[in-house]
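Quick one - inputs below.
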Amino acid sequence: DTGVSQNPRHKITKRGQNVTFRCDPISEHNRLYWYRQTLGQGPEFLTYFQNEAQLEKSRLLSDRFSAERPKGSFSTLEIQRTEQGDSAMYLCASSLGQTKKNTEAFFGQGTRLTVV
Amino acid sequence: DAKTTQPPSMDCAEGRAANLPCNHSTISGNEYVYWYRQIHSQGPQYIIHGLKNNETNEMASLIITEDRKSSTLILPHATLRDTAVYYCIVSYGGSQGNLIFGKGTKLSVKP
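Output:
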């Protein structure tokens, strides 16, 4: 399977615990995005990377959230001190990100987080 | 905030063409129109995108008005598997584009 892979698919955690999600993009894609989606809403942009550089962060990305892409390949999204409001689907996407060509983003299946 | 306006829901009979409208009156000259869809419990799936000219691929056709203030996604022969939420997005794409999703149109294809 050469698509975007996200792990785990589901995560249930207690309020106050830390969680970490992993995203493996399509191998030649240099751009990687994180989105959050709550029930009945469209995906909301959180942050994106160009290779290992984090180029943009949404105001939705509070200081409890941190994302890394250390070698420009896979990425992790960590949420510290989880709150019930963090319950959502967390989606990862990747694209070629060529500067002079618009290319589509490919999404993973997401990680569904439930904070109890 | 999303720069597009879409009807919240539409129905279409199986085998008929589904025409999904989108208004983007504030689109700037170098922004593209993208369409994605999301089938229940899956990640969004790219369908098509365009700048000025109409576009067609194996999934759909995209018709963009001459003033670029609106567009229509056409699924020529809708099937039950096309039931999904369809998102119309304007984006610079390429080196700048994150995608700002709205609430989309829930398309229900009925037998």
